[in-house]
Amino acid sequence: LNAHLLSFANTYRGAGISRYIANLIRGLQEFDPENSYTVFLGAKDVPGDFFGNRRFRPAYSRAPTGQPAVRILWEQLAQPVLVNGLKPDLLHSLAFVRPLFCPVASVVTVYDVSFALYPDSFKIANRLYLRYFTRHSARAAQRVVAISESTRRDLVRLWQVSPDKISVVYPGLEERFAPITEPDKLVEFRRTRGLPEHFILCVGTLEPRKNVEGLLRAFSTLLKTGSHVRHLVLAGARGWKCQGVFDLIEALNLQEQVITPGYILQAELPWWYAAADVFVYPSLYEGFGLPILEAMACGTPVVASNVTTIPEAAGDAALLVEPVDVEAFSAAIRSVLDDDSLRQDMIRRGLLQAQRFTHRRMAEGMIGVYSEFQARAAKRARS
Known about the structure:
Elements: H1 17-31, E1 37-41, E2 56-60, H2 68-86, E3 91-93, E4 106-110, H3 114-117, H4 124-140, E5 143-146, H5 149-159, E6 166-168, H6 183-193, E7 200-203, H7 212-224, E8 232-235, H8 243-251, E9 258-259, H9 269-275, E10 278-281, H10 290-297, E11 302-305, H11 310-314, E12 319-321, H12 326-338, H13 340-354, H14 359-382
Parallel strand pairs: 1-2, 3-4, 4-5, 5-6, 7-8, 7-10, 8-9, 10-11, 11-12
Helix pairs in contact: 1-14, 7-12, 10-13
């Protein structure tokens, strides 16, 4: 397993893809009793007890692969040499890209193709690298793992990757995402974080494809209707081209109503979800949309956009609207805030939907990919 993007840092590096990798490795250790794994790592912050299974051997790089350029060189030059020496059944590249020249059979995981569909959200060097190398990797690998049916369709449509070699393995939720049933503790949490009693929450990097500016316009419209919820929390790191968000906050005169706490520690996220009246996810494009399920698992109703993979994550448990329809987004939020019967039904449905996405299902899905590959390899060897 190439897990060089795995990080346990209390920064954005420990979120997103890193969490998917961490949860997968945890699941494989618990639910795969047969295969043995060598795990290539770059970060030195992996807890000592993370690898508690003797069939998992961590292999740390001496190179500082936390730097993107160094990681790319390691993946393309050093990794093939190491793999050739180990001679595993396969190499699973867990983040888009496998070596151009891979000495063994390979599996590659692709989370999304936002760099191809929303190029303005990426720096040019990053965009070009991901576009070329991910396309090559998806075509050259013996198996591709997508984290949603939407990403699977994108790979087929954009790069003509054979649909027969793409498997979908959904992410799994950590157990810490659960309802917080002690109101006094939530009151204390809001107090210590300087949060109002009632607020709308959005979690995600502040960047164009997250459609934060559209949400700000919907929130401004909501305030004009006299809603009792008067605050919006935009929780996330500042991303590429985020200045437009802050310019719009000023233009709409929302400085007193919009709270921007920055990146939220993973351990604190359940408290933020549970403290909110409603979670909103207005993104224009996602590979999956895990925050939707995190919020649902914490008992918070969700309003989200109805595009790409978001309906897969949300199921029938969220209100889904066109992300560019400001009036519709505002009206959907208002209905959740005002209609208690609707709210309770959404909470109930959300808890059920979140239960479908577990570590076990994630691990068993990936083990199925490996088993199918091994069975085909054995069949070819016999013939």
